[in-house]
Amino acid sequence: xxxxxxxxxxxxxxxxxxxxxxxxxxxxxxxxxxxxxxxxxxxxxxxxxxxxxxxxxxxxxxxxxxxxxxxxxxxxxxxxxxxxxxxxxxxxxxxxxxxxxxxxxxxxxxxxxxxxxxxxxxxxxxxxxxxxxxxxxxxxxxxxxxxxxxxxxxxxxxxxxxxxxxxxxxxxxxxxxxxxxxxxxxxxxxxxxxxxxxxxxxx
Length: 203
Description:
alpha/beta
């Protein structure tokens, strides 16, 4: 059942988005399962990245909890008039040409924000990759915020919210907890060649 428990209560616009998401998910037969961290700032990772619909369903899931989930986009996407809409639904422009890397840019953004949730796909692509991109880990580590995990179960039409942890710097131990969550999820992609691992674990 879609949760009606409103955490992180926000302004009236949050309530409007809640009801829009509620009816859209109901119409499409989707449920939201679990709860979100009781924190004003965290980074969300969703895996596996299997469909162009991933962002839509995850945004709707977070609207159920009245949380604005932001996401990264190339700076060139934010030119008007389309850029106005992209920002309105949570897009954050990233300048990849800056001397300051993406990890540092987002860690600084977190440090200067009172409330911020950014969603990332650690795979970075729907194609096969031997490793997850580790940016999410180091952003959370530098900003001292939780990493929160979730996934979309397209077979059973569920957006599942799961484990939350603050990275310790011990990459393997932290990733073991993340792997355990996705192992319990029993998703088909775990049986494929996709691996939940970071290059830093092999150093």
